[in-house]
Structures are given as structure tokens and as C-alpha cells.
Specification:
By secondary structure, the chain is of the alpha/beta class. It folds into two domains: 57 residues, no CATH class; 241 residues, TIM Barrel (Alpha-Beta Barrel). It has twelve helices and eight strands. The protein has an eight-stranded parallel beta barrel, surrounded by seven helices. α7 packs parallel to α8 and α8 runs parallel beside α9. It is globular, with a radius of gyration of 18 Å.
Length: 305
């Protein structure tokens, strides 16, 4: 019960507009620097280089979501374009992840698509790949609709499917051949649309992974759950699935030893690296996911700033 209260508390706080705005002025606080790799492109490129040297590949996420005016959305689009250009200039091994609400989805659908096309054009020119992050349930269908439209022109774009949603199985079937990141899910969704029990989520998650792999589609298994990782290792071996058809993904700052270990075993291990001054909502969701993550915040309160 206490764990559920903690989770719900942090998820609600993550959507507080006033706190999110204030956090942009605070700089990284409360231990956020342990899971957010700086606020500038230069700082995150440096972190990416360090991780590449350890045999890890990356995906960069310029934090920000639920943008409410076109000027902010255009600024975010420009920043993502510059991030792709910086990745190429530095020669680092990294993809890019974006959120459609950061690009103006809640303002105007066509405006958002045009911003996304600018990013994908830059990614095409720099031979890179862009992942559209999945947001809360209210944005799920429109995100998939936009993905379908974009893929009529661009093949360097994929998205994320969240295993706690009842619809996830059908979505994975519909997206056969698309590069998917499969996750358990990190938003507060109602019992009408999502599993509430961890065991149900885990079971569905494994089902999604196996189905997408067996379809021959590239699959990113994004989890810190060592039991699921071991089950995936066994499954791909039993089904002769080549290592270049899948990759493991983990968040920056979590399970660092396991990340390096997987890379040393010959698996593609991609680190999801968030950066930027709009860090508050992301950090609160990490607090909500596991009670142990609150330790980041406690340590941060007493760390030097």
C-alpha cells in the first residue's frame, strides 16, 4: 500500500506545471544529476563518448513534454536538429529519442508532423535513427497514427510500446517490421486501459518481446529486470535469433555494471541518456517506478551542488 501511495504521489507531482517550470531555474537538484546527464548538448556528447568507450551505444533524449506554445515547440525542434548534428560531428554512436508533445502535438497535429519531418530529414542526412517515445494513454493512438504517416516517407523512425496497456499486443502485431522499443510503462493509467498488477505486466511484456522477435522485427528490450533479461537470452538462443536483431536498453545512471557486462557478453547494450533543463517530470517518474529510486533523491539532498 505504501509503495502504491509513493508511486501515485510522484506521478502526480511529475505533472505539476508550476514545479516543472520552477525546476528549469533550479538546475539539476535532488539527485537528478545521477540520472540526467547535464543540461547542454556539449555535456551529453561528452557522456556519450565516455559510454561508447566502455562498449555501450546510446540514445539521446532532450527532455521536455506537454509544450503549450509554438515558439517552445520550434525551439525544441531546433535543439533536436542540433543534437543530431552534434552526434555526427563528434562521431559518437547514438540515436535520438523525441516526444511528440515537445514538438507541438497538443497545439496542432500538422505543425507537430512538420517539426518531426525536419528532425527526420536531418537524421536521414546524418545516417541516424529517431525513436518516438510513447507518452501517456491519451496520446497513444495519435502517436501511432503519426508514426504510420511518417513511415510512408521515412524508414529511419520507430516508436515505443508499453506492456501495461491492454492494447499492446495488437499494436505489436500491427507494427511488424517496425523497430520497437518495448517497455513495461511509466505513467499512471487507469484499470480500464492498463494492467495494475506487476505479474500481469511482466507476463505481457515477455509475450510482446517474443512475438516481435519471432516476426523477424528489430526489438529493443528496455528493462533493468535481470530475470527478464535472462529469459530473453535463453529465448533468443533457443530460437536462433541473431544478436543484430535485438538490443538491450537501460536508463542512464541505473545498473551500470550490468550494462557493461551485457556489452562484454557481445550483446548490443544501448543507454537511454536524458539531458536538458526540463528534467523534473522525467525524474519524478523514475522515483515512482521503484521505491529504491527514492534513494537518489535522498542522496541528492545532501550532495554538493
Amino acid at each position: 500500500m505504501l509503495a502504491n501511495f509513493s508511486k501515485n504521489f510522484f506521478l502526480r507531482v511529475s505533472r505539476n506545471i508550476l514545479l516543472n517550470k520552477a525546476a528549469k531555474k533550479w538546475g539539476l537538484r535532488f539527485g537528478a544529476s545521477q540520472v540526467v546527464a547535464g543540461v547542454t548538448i556539449e555535456s551529453v556528447i561528452k557522456k556519450t563518448q565516455e559510454l561508447n568507450e566502455k562498449g555501450l551505444v546510446c540514445t539521446l533524449d532532450h527532455l521536455g513534454e506537454f509544450v503549450s506554445n509554438k515558439e517552445e515547440a520550434i525551439e525544441a525542434t531546433d535543439y533536436n536538429v542540433r543534437t543530431l548534428e552534434a552526434i555526427e560531428a563528434a562521431g559518437v554512436n547514438s540515436h535520438l529519442s523525441v516526444k511528440l508533445t515537445q514538438l507541438g502535438l497538443d497545439i496542432d497535429r500538422d505543425f507537430c508532423i512538420q517539426n518531426m519531418k525536419r528532425i527526420l530529414e536531418t537524421a536521414k542526412q546524418t545516417n541516424n535513427f529517431v525513436r518516438i517515445d510513447m507518452e501517456d494513454y491519451t496520446h497513444c493512438q495519435i502517436t501511432l497514427d503519426i508514426l504510420k504517416e511518417l513511415r510512408d516517407t521515412y524508414d529511419n523512425v520507430g516508436t515505443v510500446i508499453q506492456a501495461y496497456l491492454f492494447r499492446a499486443n495488437q499494436d505489436v502485431l500491427d507494427l511488424e517490421g517496425v523497430r520497437l522499443r518495448l517497455v513495461k510503462g511509466a505513467y499512471h493509467e487507469s484499470p480500464e486501459v492498463a494492467y495494475q498488477n506487476k505479474k500481469d505486466v511482466d507476463n505481457n511484456y515477455l509475450k510482446l518481446i517474443k512475438n516481435h522477435l519471432l516476426s523477424g522485427s528489430h526489438t529493443a528490450i528496455a528493462t533493468h529486470d535481470h530475470e527478464i533479461i535472462e529469459k530473453v537470452k535463453q529465448f533468443v538462443q533457443e530460437n536462433n535469433i541473431p544478436k543484430d536483431q535485438f538490443e538491450f536498453q537501460m536508463l542512464y545512471g541505473f545498473r551500470k555494471d550490468m550494462q557493461v557486462s551485457l556489452a562484454q557478453e557481445g550483446y548490443m547494450m544501448r543507454v537511454y541518456i536524458p539531458f536538458g533543463d526540463d528534467w523534473f517530470a522525467y525524474f519524478m517518474r523514475r522515483m515512482a517506478e521503484r521505491p529504491q529510486n527514492v534513494l537518489f533523491g535522498i542522496k541528492g539532498l545532501f550532495s554538493k551542488r
